[in-house]
Every structure is written in structure tokens, then in C-alpha cells.
Amino acid sequence: MIRVTVWNEFVHERNSAEVAAVYPEGIHAAIAGFLSKEADLRVRTATLDMPEHGLTQEVLKDTDVMLWWGHHAHREVSDEVVERVAQRVLDGMGLIVLHSAHASKIFRRLMGTNTHKLRWREDEKMQRYWVMDLAHPIAQGLGDYFELPVEETYGEHFDIPKPDDLVFVSWAPGGEVFRSGCCWNRGQGRVFYFQPGHETYPTYYDPNVQKVIVQAVRWAYREQVQPFVTDHTQALADISK
Ligand code: ZN
Fold first, then answer.
1. Residues 6+ apart with CB under 8 A from 201
2. What angle do CA 117, 216, 201 make, to 5 degrees?
3. What integer pLDDT is reported at residue 205 of this predicted model?
4. What does the pLDDT look like over 118-138, one tens digit per residue?
5. CA of 101 to the centre of ligand 1 (A)
6. Residue 63 Cα, ligand 1 centroid: separation in angstroms?
7. Residues near ligand 1 ion, CB 5 Å cutoff
8. What span, in angstroms and rounded, lies between the C-alpha atoms of 190 and 128?
């Protein structure tokens, strides 16, 4: 079983009737809902208002892959918890960063760049997500592209380090393109950023979006993490003799 924790700040759903109408139980519950239908996933949720934001050492030890949705309250996430999550990624936990979590503390910490910097616009337009890497495990079963009838426009330039795998580039009717599905290795962990998921749109009910997220969870999972030596060490042998 892959142990999954879906983290959500859970603010918009409680402050906005428009968002609550789309996600009455919260975005985390919608995501956990479709992930829980997969026989190989064991899913829990955690939110900002829980003690330690629901991300205690015990929860992190019991998590193989974490999903992160945030927007309004990035600054309210404690630096101590961010560092705890970052270290767990370096030790092999997978992290899937969703939509406006591009500006989250954890994503900025792991990327080391100003990942909050990009073009954006809420103009109720469709978005087309082109598959850049047809063989990639995250993109299986999608064809050459998929579309969302309405989603927020994000556009380049996106201040991220060059991705290790570029899985999706999205196109917006306004003329922008955006690296909307990107993979990185950090330490022994894997990180995937996936752009769709604005809180006022029903994006997380879309079958293609669900397929991508399920496949991303499986891709980000490390079955085994190898311990390695980082101390001052003696030579293994004297090969000059
Ligand atoms: Zn948004």
C-alpha cells in the first residue's frame, strides 16, 4: 500500500460560498475521494487548522506521498513544519504540488527559486494540456493532449529550475503557454508540480485530472530508500600497490 496524505489549507471553502458550492467538504476531501477508490492507496487528509497543521513527525513517518494545495494562507504555515516536510522529501517522500501551491513555502524551499513568479489571469477560458513526454508514467492514457473547459490561465515565465522531466505544457486562448506538469528529484524524493485546480472550478472532478494525480502518486512513490554513508571514511583499499 502507498500511504498518501492530502494537505489543504482549507480556507477558501469556508470563506466563500462560491467555492463551498464546488467543494462542500473541501478540496482535500474531493482529492482524497477519488484517490481512495484506488486499491493500492491508503489516504488520509490534513489541514492548516489542525495542531502542527496535521503534519506531525508521526504522520510524516507514515506518509509515502503528500499532496499540497494552498493559496490564501501560505504565510500561516509554520517554518518548522515546512522544514520537516522538506527533510522528509529529501529522505524519499514524494510531493505533489497543486495549482496555487506554486507559491507555497514548501515548493519554494525545495526549488530554491522564486516559484511564486508567473503570469496569471482568471478569465473563465478553456486550457489545453499538451503531453510533452508520451512515455512518462504520469501521462499514460491521455493521448496527445487533454482539455479543461474552464481553468485559470497561468503563463510563462514561470521561475522554476529546469525540470528533470517536462510532462505537460498548457496552452491558453490568450496566447500564453505554461510548463504545467513538471518533475524534479530532490535528495531521494520526487516532486511533481501540476497546474490545474483553481478553487472556483470543478477541476478535481475531471477524469483526466484525476488520472494524472493518481499516476503522479504512483510515480512519486519510492518503495525502498537506500541508506548511504556521508561521514569521513577510510580508503576502501590502497590501489597504488
Ligand atoms: Zn487559482
1. 22, 148, 150, 151, 152
2. 60
3. 98
4. 999 999 899 999 999 999 999
5. 9
6. 26
7. 100, 152, 198
8. 25
CA of 100 to the centre of ligand 1 (A): 5
Whether the CB-CB separation of 111 and 118 falls below 8 Å is answered with no
pTM (two decimals): 0.97
Question: How far, in Å, is the centroid of ligand 1 from the Cα of 61?
Answer: 30
Residue 105 has pLDDT above 90, yes or no: yes
Contact 154, 146 (CB under 8 A): no
- Mean of the per-residue pLDDT values of the chain: 97
The per-residue DSSP string of 149-176 comes to EEEEEEES----PPPSEEEEEEE-TTS-
- pLDDT of 241 > 90? The answer is no
Cα torsion 69, 73, 75, 79: sign? negative
